[in-house]
Specification:
2 domains; Molybdopterin biosynthesis moeA protein, domain 3; alpha+beta; 244 residues; single chain; six-stranded mixed beta sheet; two-stranded antiparallel sheet
Length: 244
Amino acid sequence: MKQTPLNTEKFQRKAVKVEEAQSRIASYVQQGEREDVGLEQAHGRYLAMDLTAPHPYPRFRRSGMDGYAILASDTEVCSTGQEIWLHVIDEIPCGTVSDKRVETGMAVRIMTGAQLPEGADTVVMLEATQLREENGQTYVGLKKRMEVGKNVTQIGHEIKEGQLLLSKGTCVGAGHVSVLATFGVRGQFTGSHGWLSFPLDQNCSQWMSRYNRGKFETVIHICWLLKLERQEESRSFCKPFMMI
């Protein structure tokens, strides 16, 4: 019986480090061209460039809890145990903006995440207050001295203008799309899972400057998260399988 010569070359393999193997492979990788698509198609693709914040976030002074927006200076007498009563002039649910200005002796009912009205510089928590009605007017009372800026998230507290949001090469997931929508950007992609970039969407930016910024920033990222979650749920029922 004739024997086949043993090919010993295939056994002459040399192990290399992961970094070296990656560098060898990378020399054969080519970057594709960019393609304009909407954010709803961004999921699973990769950023082609660093993305920085076009504006600070939040863009407005935001209430950190449910309570009343007031002037901290009104509460200075509370340090001696004296109770004060402030006239409630408006209510601000989350997603709305008040056109009233808070001055001495005034307060505005405010919800968590809502934009502080002009003039107010602090928020007193709801549990530290009491209400009374007098001649058809509502007054809120409190006994605690408040510091300026208490329970208020200042402009740019979470993200500064120009701060890096997402790095080049990031695989875009639901949370990333939420960030992109919050900052009003659109995408450029290549292929089904290629590279992309996100210039600022000027139409979206102009819309935010003309209309309710408080409502936009509160709602937009929630809508995108819900949309992406629903897409993920639908995909989970369409996973490929093998029959044996």
